[in-house]
Write a structure and sequence with these properties.
19% helix, 143 residues, single chain, 3-stranded antiparallel β-sheet, alpha+beta
Length: 143
């Protein structure tokens, strides 16, 4: 459903919607600095019934119950979330700060297990915060 790439040189997390789902969402890519990613966890996303769907319809996303959920939706807490999932059982939830979206809920491509994807993102966060670029920033200790 989504290709999740990490550009360590630029310090970016890139989520690219794949396949036909790209044609039904106005936003098919989300790019965020790794510094704004606070966590990632493989967590099944429960299916939404019609009433729950209607509560979040104010976003610019497409939700076909039981088939897919892609695009921007408004969460119960009023924050924006970006979805790119088919099977909620394979969801990876990426928590963000200082971004348009509070969460990215994505399904990694079939080649990657959700747990491995979440681990890869968490490792990239650690690397971005402790890598050579972080040591050259003003006010950081280089020990």
């Amino acid at each position: 459903m989504a290709h999740i790439a990490i550009d360590q040189d630029q310090g970016l997390l890139i989520v690219q919607v794949e396949g036909l789902a790209r044609m039904i969402t106005p936003r098919d890519r989300v790019i965020v600095p790794l510094d704004h990613v606070v966590g990632a966890v493989a967590r099944p996303e429960p299916p939404r019934n019609l009433v729950e769907h209607l509560k979040t319809i104010t976003g610019a996303g497409t939700h076909i119950p039981g088939v897919l959920r892609v695009g921007t939706f408004i969460a119960d807490d009023g924050c924006r979330e970006f979805y790119a999932i088919r099977d909620g059982k394979r969801a990876v939830v990426i928590e963000l700060v200082q971004e348009r979206f509070r969460r990215l809920i994505v399904e990694p491509s079939a080649r990657e297990e959700p747990e491995a994807c979440a681990r890869r993102i968490r490792e990239a966060i650690v690397h971005a915060r402790s890598g050579p670029n972080s040591q050259s920033r003003p006010g950081t200790n280089s020990r």
